[in-house]
Amino acid sequence: MKYLYSILFLVSVLSIGCNKKFTTPTGEKIPLFRGTIVYDIEVESPLKGKYEGNLASVLGNEMHLTIYKNGDIQRLYKGSDSTVGYDIRYIDLEDKEVLEKYNDSDSLHIHSLEKRNYSKLKDLRTSNESLKLLNRELKQVAIAAQESPYPMANGNFLAIKYWYDETIRIDKSKYTNVNDELFNYYIEETNGALFLKYELDYYTYKVTYTAKDILPNTYLKSNDKLDEEAPRVKE
Asked: pTM above the 0.90 mark?
């Protein structure tokens, strides 16, 4: 009987450790993505000097997007200012929360992951030109949207463009209720594909995230910054 229990335990461990796979149109079986994608961040504005410096200080020059094994998502910002800069944005699926942290404070600002901070207005015509990045041919989803008014936003209009490769895909069933930054909309539209290029165009300025490295099974830990003892500010 002990031998049987050992076999069952081993099978359960192996089952948990196995990553789900999906089948591409060509019949290739590829595991769903877990790990980290590293992006360059670029801020551009026709109003020279008005936005680039301030936004670069807040966002930094690099963002690390990590998909954990349980589906949680972390964005870690590098090169941002020590006083006004963004540090972490973390989507906690179990607690249904988004946790945000800035460099100058240990406090975590928390809101529901179901809260909408953008509303889709309409689809935009996508370019017929193909975009190639990291030797991958990317497809595009583009929409016109509006910020949901709240103390840190004015309800501005913007265009959002989301370029993706269908082979960099996550389990879309986990993100049905993640309205934060319209994440569930894009994951549904692309059948679970993560962006490799992402553009927020507010017309007076534009922020672009461009992938430069894809690191499967590489997980950046920032649990010390998200400690349960950290002060929490709930919206």
From this structure: no
